[in-house]
Amino acid sequence: MSDPAARIEELKTSLQLQPHVEGGHYRRFHPPKGADNAGARHAMSAIHYLLEAGECSSWHRVDAEEAWHFVEGEPLELLIYHPETHRLDRCTLGPVQGDTQAMTVVPAGAWQAARPLGRYALATCIVAPAFEYEGFELLAQDDPLASHLAGLVPEIGF
């Protein structure tokens, strides 16, 4: 399909994507709704995640490792801030070539944000152990780290 706008709408419909609190659109497909693990945390969870041009995921962190796998569209930039070392990594995910890789892993507790570098980017994100809202934190705009990250990465902003 050569029309990116039509492809974006097709993906939202076929993958049943909904607005995400971080920005963009997503759908959790594993574990499926209603899957019970007898109160224990599932081994992993997975979502489809779509960002369109002009959208960014907000700075956030989770208490588990998160693997980002590029699926289609144009490359996206994944930003990973390691609070213990104050290091910022910029990873480009897309078709493998040069410095662009198909997947990367965000360590547990690292701050992360993403932005598409073209019209749209679709990724699959796998969290292990499974994502739980109790282990999720959005970076507050009034947090001193927010202004530090905005200075490092003004293209993400707040």
Automatic annotation (TrEMBL):
Protein name per Swiss-Prot or TrEMBL: Cupin superfamily sugar epimerase
A Pfam family: Cupin_5
Annotated organism of origin: Dyella japonica
Residue stretches making up the DUF985 domain: 12-139
Cited InterPro entries: Cupin_DUF985, RmlC-like_jellyroll, RmlC_Cupin_sf, YML079W-like
